[in-house]
Amino acid sequence: ESDVPWVLGTQLTTRSGPIARAAEGSRVLMIEAHDFAARKPYHHHKLTLVFAAMRQFRDRLRAAGYEVIYITADSFADGFAAFFDDHPDTRLVAMRSPSYGSERRFRELIEAAGGDVRFVDNELFASTRQAFDEWANADPDDETPTFKHESMYRWLRRETGVLMDGDEPVGGEWNYDDENREFPDETWAAPPAPSPEPDEQTVETAAWVEDSFETWGDTSVDDFPWPVTREQAQDALDRFIDERLGEFGEYQDAMRADDWAMAHSLLSSSINLGLLHPVEVIEAIIDAYDSRDLPLNAVEGCVRQILGWREFMRHVYRHAMPALAEANQLDATASLPDFYWDGDTEMECLSQTISEVYDRGYSHHIQRLMVLANFATLWGVEPGELNDWFHATYVDAYHWVTTPNVIEMGQYGHGVFATKPYVSSANYIDKMSDYCSDCRYYKTKTTGENACPFNALYWDFLDRNEEQLRSNHRMGLMYSHVDDKQESDELSSIRDRVATLRAKAADGDI
Ligand code: FAD
User: Is any atom of ligand 1 closer than 6 Å to the C-beta of 429?
Assistant: First the structure.
């Protein structure tokens, strides 16, 4: 029985996993299964990206002499059946997918097809499961474990030596987050966003996706900034370092209506597909820091996202699933307003952000957290429904990364690491964006026909969730304001305003 490396669609690299250890020219399996793509109204660009990148990887492997068995099938079950019919004396060997339960499901399908498989660790992260578990000393059966991002991040900085000066962090601080919250003045121009010409394979795949699936989002690939090959991804990394990294720090949290990318790296889709390894991205950032004059708050800020948050989310997901996907500690039951799908709202922050997601399956972190998830949390949207929306609509979305970001960080669903909900009124959005100046709603008003919905919803959220949140010492100040509003009777006008908003939303008129 010989081992055949099976490369999953999110592991498109020859530098990690079983394929890296197989002799050049070996036989390799790839399965392009189509049923998953029909399960949700995925963004057209997301499906185009995944399928085009798989096909490109296949072609590159073949050009390098590998014998690639590329099976196109309705489902993985059919794909495995076809493979083992033709190659009965083989065993598959693959890196685990980070998606919960996927190892068990794949094993069942493979055994049903009369085959065998061996799963090895996923090497596409900066830390291993074993190392994290040893460090965290977590009970594997505890479904509501608690973890702290900052301590994991410091541990990984020490472990890898990244931005370390002996035992001390470079610059004397572990974290320069408080230097990453500026809003640029009008003279600042964001670095140019990439707009490469799509190659022929991408154009063909895009047309096939449009014919084959019910997708959401723009189907034109004239503006398709997502790398589909390793070369394109490396080029995107180089360009990020040359053009954007220096500006990444200060304005990381800022939102401007005319700059969809600001100075963000736009690398998540490439890292999540295996086209770039997170460690190579970190190394490139550190090399640039060592050889050029780059601000530490930009370099540390970006390292924290990749070595800190990305790794953290993966381990949180591993430990908190399956409960995390269903978690709903605030008992939120409202449905997602229709405008998340059709963009039809007069709230400028939401309409701008949703139209950017519609155009290219992307918005940056603060739009995701403080506009889209913030509004949904204030509205009381059931976390699983918002998670499904993010999973369907973003090019970089996979269950392992979307679920902890949306349900825990965005909606305070579980309490694994969030110590309070990330919610705000119009005040934060106005401070960090230029949306409010073009909005028909008044950012400073809470009640009345033209008041910004975020304001009444914010106080109503605190009021509604008082039992859960008042005892949280981080919310103390906010509850003293709620008490003032209760006394002055403002709270009852706030409740009326929210009832009006809900009725208007039901008519698609908010
Ligand atoms: P940059 O801002 O340039 O950051 C650099 C890199 O850091 C990213 O490419 C990414 O690899 C990593 N990173 C930063 N923050 C996170 C984080 N919280 N979790 C994981 N990786 C992080 N990220 C996804 O990859 N897929 C998702 O489906 C996803 N859904 C999200 C949903 C919500 C509600 C929120 C609040 C965040 C979500 N994120 C998700 C995290 C983050 O917003 C994106 O990784 C980031 O915006 C991608 O854009 P970028 O590559 O320009 O990132």
Answer: no
